[in-house]
Amino acid sequence: MQSILVKNGSETPEPVKAEVKGSLPSWLQGTLLRNGPGLFSVGDSEYNHWFDGMSLIHSFTFSNGEVSYRSKFLKSDTYKRNVKANRIVVSEFGTMIYPDPCKNIFSRAFTHLSNVIPDFTDNNLVNIIRYGKDYYASSEVNYMNQIDPATLETVGRINYRNHIAINLATAHPHYDNEGNTYNMGTAIMGFGRPKYVIFKVPADASDNDPKKPALRKVQQVCSIPFRSTLFPSYFHSFGMTENYIVFVEQPFKLDILRLATAYFRGVNWGSCLKYDKDDITLFHVINRKTGKAVSTRFHADAFIVFHHINSYEDDGHVVFDLISYKNSNLYDMFYIQNLKQDTKSFIKSNKSFSPPLCQRFVLPLNVQKDSPRETNLVTLKDTTAQAVMQEDGSVYCQPDTLFEGLELPGINNNFNTKNYRYFYGSRVEWSPHPNKIAKFDIVTRKHLEWQKDNCFPSEPVFVASPGAVEEDDGVILSSVISPDPNISPFMLVLNAKTMEEIAQAAIPATIHMDLHGHFIPAAV
Q: Quick one: pLDDT at residue 112?
């Protein structure tokens, strides 16, 4: 498996036609864009971490029963500088680089202390997100790179800071029924009081003019002050219901002083994240129409979350499902030196890895000062989640564990923010990458799986059938790779109801493992 993970990917700049086995639904028309790390060395220099690899964008276009594939490296400033120098000259999450050897340690320290927060890479390798009609390769920094979804050409870089006062932003926004985009960022230094910022970009923000990005019409919904000024919570995603934003302020924290002095100390940015297992987790519930937070202090035991599954409201409660971890060792698994180990050695060295848990939290909204103490305030009958009023008036929450061993969750996005029944994801079994796709039924608590020997699928993406009424009426799309040279990479299409294979589209090109993506339906 190591050859798949750490081997440099390559571009397929012109579309190639896939060989389809099976029958694709006639209604499946559109393009699946995928993003992830694809280049792990430049010249004689190598990255230390899998999340450092330079972005490789993939597209799978479905048209009239056929599939075509193309891929291009994101032509970010980082990519251009590295290629020009024929070595890595820009620091990434797990790889700290000093591009100018003439600068001594004191001048480097002065530069970064004066800026407080360093100027990050624009190697946007995490996801593809939409603002208005603009599509961007994104990560979690202040830069994004706009791409042309048809040609995969890099249109140009945009800086969040030119439009809204944030230093960091997630690569996992939410899209409402009107096409508006909601996202969340962090304002650390230089923007007044440090805070978390929730913002909205209207659906009609684009003018089809690259000089007028949709982000210029961004609207701040609200802000939440840091619990600790120098140790803000790290967050990779957030929850949203029809009326509320759910932000999990977890005890996985960014050490601001360590970040500001990373160059001086000779440490990478990844080491600036620390998990405080003795702290608590806070849940913030904010009305996304008024921007006002629910006054009740909801909290839980310490845990780490990267991906939310879905959130909704039910009979006076906010219900949100997420994937939690008991420690922060997940990142450590993806250091290149770990990925190069054989399976036996990998398992031995990662014994402390915390498996992902799909968990449900339920927050009652009608909490009163005289609500009974030490009593579960959750009245929903379909969950064992608890919310217990404490003597100090806060509410201590305990989750309902739904499923174990699933990551990269996806749902029918027509049910985003709504009461739902199914979610899909990649099964994780002692491997840095999953080898199964699972569908979980929240009502029956049962699951279905797809698996094929020596095949490793990417994050499953649900595409609903036109006019579908049932939640699972549609298909699951996932690109699949294999270390077996006799198995070509292929686009997998599953019946989302039964998880049975409908079709495979074998790609006559090299495909690299990716992270996240976005399906763009064909214009009608």
A: 44
- CB burial of residue 162 (10 Å; 0-12, 13-18, 19+): exposed
Burial 70-104 (b: 16+ CB within 10 A, else e): bbbbbbbebbebbbeeebbbbbbbbbbbeeeeeee
111 pLDDT higher than 60? no
Tokens of 222: 């609200």
With beta carbons less than 8 A apart as the criterion, state whether 225 and 195 touch: yes
Q: Produce one character per residue of 338-349: b if its CB has 16 or more CB atoms within 10 Å, e if not.
A: bbeeeeeebeee
188-218 pLDDT per residue, tens: 866 667 899 999 999 998 876 667 899 999 9
Band the pLDDT of 118: cuts 50, 70, 90.
Answer: low
Q: Which pLDDT belongs to residue 105?
A: 42
Beta strands at 298-301 and 395-398: parallel, antiparallel or unpaired: parallel
Question: 427-436 as b/e, with b when 16 or more CB fall inside 10 Å?
Answer: bbeebbbbbb
| Residues in contact with 415: Cβ distance below 8 Å, sequence separation at least 6, in sequence order | 310, 471
Half-sphere exposure of 15 (CA within 13 A, CB side): 15
Q: Between the CA of residue 370 and those of 177, 297, 312, 394, what are the distances in Å? A: 38, 15, 26, 12
Structure-token pair, residue 20: 């389809």
Backbone angles phi, psi at 356, to 5 degrees: -70, 140
Q: What is the 3-state secondary structure (H, E, C) of 302-313?
A: CCEEEEEEEEEE
- The structural domains of the chain, with segments of one domain joined by +, span 2-521
Instruction: Tell me the C-alpha to C-alpha distance, in Å, between residue 300 and each of 55, 172, 307.
Output: 36, 23, 17
- One-letter amino acid at 421 equals R
State the amino acid at position 374 in one-letter form.
E
Residue 110 has pLDDT above 80, yes or no: no
Q: Cα separations (Å) of 210 from 206, 256, 442, 523?
A: 9, 34, 43, 20
Q: Considering only CA atoms, which of 426, 428, 453, 430 is closest in space to residue 440?
A: 426
The span from the CA of 175 to the CA of 154, in Å, is: 23
CA–CA gap between residue 400 and residue 418 (Å, rounded): 19
Q: pLDDT (tens digit, 9 = 90+) per residue, 417-473?
A: 999 999 999 987 656 677 899 999 999 999 999 999 999 999 999 999 999 999 999
Plot region of 442 (φ>0 → left; ψ -120 to 50 → alpha; else → beta): alpha
User: What is the chain's mean pLDDT, rounded?
Assistant: 91
For 502, half-sphere exposure in the C-beta direction (CA atoms, 13 angstrom radius) is 19
**pLDDT tens digits, 36-49:** 999 999 999 999 99
At 374 the pLDDT is 87
Q: Return d(Cα 131, Cα 200) in angstroms, integer.
A: 9
What's the rounded mean pLDDT across residues 352-375? 90
CA–CA gap between residue 240 and residue 199 (Å, rounded): 12
**Where are the alpha helices (H) located in 303-383, listed in sequence order?**
330-333, 336-339, 343-349
